[in-house]
Structure formats: C-alpha cells, structure tokens
Amino acid sequence: MLSRAEIFEKLKEILLFADNKNRAVIEKCDESTKLVTDLGFNSVSVLYMVIAIEESFGIVFDNVSMNDFETIGDVVSYIEARLK
C-alpha cells in the first residue's frame, strides 16, 4: 500500500506528463495547489491526468468531473480511497 506522500509524488510525475508547460509550478506544488487556477488545467489536461492515473495506479474513475477535483490534495484523496 502506498503512503499518501508516495501517491502525491507519483501524481506529480503524472501532472508533468499531462501538462509539461507548467513544469516549474508543478515541481513546487503541494496538496493545496489548485488544478485550474494555479496550474491552468483544462478539460483536456484533466483527461490526460485521469488516463495516466488509471494506468499508473490500476484504478478506475467512476463518474467524476473536473469539478470533483479542485486541488491536488483532492486527487490524492480520491486515489488513496480507491487503493484501499
């Protein structure tokens, strides 16, 4: 079982894949970083992120929307809950 910190670090790698143009911001982000306002994510970026998370963590996102994840911490919590 991955710790919350390990999930966060793996998620940062995924975020870099999903949106490489914000590399400096993503590398300095924490769980309170907002996907849309701080990172500038749009629906396409979120789609890439979701696909990469599903492949990396072996989980499936069930009926979630961009509004379900305001911060990186929200995404970490979702992943953490699915891994239990």
From TrEMBL:
Domain of life: Bacteria
Domain Carrier residue range list: 5-83
A Pfam entry, by short name: PP-binding
InterPro entries referenced in this protein's UniProt entry, alphabetically: ACP-like_sf, PP-bd_ACP
Protein name, entry field: Carrier domain-containing protein
